[in-house]
Amino acid sequence: MAADALLDLFHDTLRDIYWAEKHLLKALPKLAKNAANPELGQALEDHRRETEGQVERLERVFAIIDKAARGKKCEAMVGLSAEADEVLEEVDDDMVRDAGIIGAAQAVEHYEIARYGTLKAWAKLLGEDEAADLLDQTLEEEKAADKKLTMLSDSINLEADESQEAA
Ligand code: ZN
Ligand code: FE
Ligand code: FE
Ligand code: FE
User: Fold this and answer.
1) How many domains does the chain have?
2) Distance in Å, CA 14 to ligand 4 centroid
3) Which-ligand-closest: CA of 70?
4) Which residues constitute the domain of residue 153?
C-alpha cells in the first residue's frame, strides 16, 4: 500500500538524519577546537549543545511512529565530514582555515535543512502532526545556525582575504 511505502521512506530517512546528528556530536567539537576566531568556536560549541536536543527530538519522532531509534549510516554526512577534515589538514593560515570551517559547516547545515524540510513535509502527509512539529523545531534551529555562520563569515572572509594579501 502506498501509505506504507511512504512511511517506510520516512522511517529510513529519519534513521539517516539520526545517524548524521549523532555523528555531528563528535564532529562539531573538532571544528570548534580548530577555529581561531573565538566567536566561531563558540557558535560551533553552541550548535553542538543544540544538536543534543535535536537527537532527543528525533528519538521522540521514532517513538511516535512506534519504531526503535536506530541510525543508518549517512554517506552524505561521511563525505561532508571528510571534506571538513581536509580543510583542517590542508589549510595553514588561521583566518583562511576559519573561512573554510564556515564553508564546511554551512554545507552540513544545508544538508540538514534539506533533510528536515523533506521529513516535515512527509510527516504532514502521513498525518503525523506532532512529528511534523518536532521536525519543524529542528528545521528552524538549523536555519538559524546557517544564518549565524553567514553573519560570522562577513568579517571572517574579509580577514581571510586580507591575511592572504599580507602574505
Ligand atoms: Zn524501514
Ligand atoms: Fe542538526
Ligand atoms: Fe543522508
Ligand atoms: Fe545543524
Assistant:
1) 1
2) 15
3) 1
4) 2-166
